[in-house]
Design brief:
Elements (H helix, E strand, L loop, with lengths): L5 H25 L6 E4 L2 E5 L5 H14 L1 H4 L34 H10 L18 H12 L4 H13 L2
Antiparallel strand pairs: 1-2
Length: 164
C-alpha cells in the first residue's frame, strides 16, 4: 500500500475542511436556527418566536368551527380565489403558504378576524369579534401560521414586528 506524502495529506485535509465549512454555511442559510434575527432589506427583527402547541391546538379547533366551511379544511381556500365573482366580491383565499395571509402583520389579520373583511375591497369575510376574544383570534392565527414554511413565517414575523 502506497503512503501519501505529508504535503498531500495536509492539502487533502484542507480541501475536506473547506468543503465541510461550505456545506455547513449552505445548510445554515437553508435552515435558519432558532435565535437568529430575521433580516430583510438590511433591517433586522428579533428571532422568530417559537410556536406554542397549546395555542395552535386551540386555534385549530376555532378554525374548524368558524373558518373551514369557507377557507377549506386544509386552509386551501376556494378555487379561483383571485378571480372576482359576478357581484365583484372575491372567493375566500387560502390561508396556507399559497395564499397571501402571510403578506400581512398580525395586527391587521387579527382585526380582520374580529371585525370582518373590508367590503370596499370585495370581501365577504364576516366578523367574529362576538365569538372570539383577541387572544382566541391570536390562537387561530397561530394555527394558520403553523401551516407556513420557514420563509413565509419569517417574512410575516418581520412585518408584524415592524408594524405592531
Amino acid at each position: 500500500m502506497r503512503r501519501l506524502k505529508p504535503s498531500r495529506v495536509r492539502l487533502l485535509a484542507a480541501v475536506l475542511l473547506l468543503g465541510a465549512g461550505a456545506a455547513f454555511l449552505t445548510w445554515r442559510e437553508a435552515y435558519p436556527s432558532a435565535g437568529r434575527p430575521v433580516v430583510l432589506l438590511g433591517t433586522p427583527a428579533p428571532p422568530l418566536p417559537t410556536s406554542d402547541p397549546a395555542s395552535v391546538a386551540r386555534g385549530a379547533a376555532a378554525y374548524a368551527e368558524l373558518c373551514a366551511a369557507c377557507h377549506g379544511a386544509n386552509l386551501e381556500g376556494a378555487p379561483d380565489w383571485k378571480v372576482p365573482l359576478a357581484d365583484g366580491s372575491y372567493p375566500p383565499p387560502p390561508h396556507d403558504s399559497t395564499g397571501h395571509t402571510w403578506h400581512h402583520p398580525d395586527s391587521l389579520l387579527i382585526e380582520i378576524i374580529l371585525r370582518g373583511g373590508d367590503r370596499a375591497l370585495g370581501s365577504k369575510m364576516p366578523a367574529f369579534g362576538d365569538r372570539l376574544s383577541r387572544a382566541q383570534a391570536g390562537d387561530l392565527l397561530n394555527f394558520i401560521r403553523s401551516s407556513w414554511g420557514i420563509e413565509e413565517r419569517q417574512y410575516q414575523w418581520w412585518l408584524t414586528y415592524h408594524n405592531p
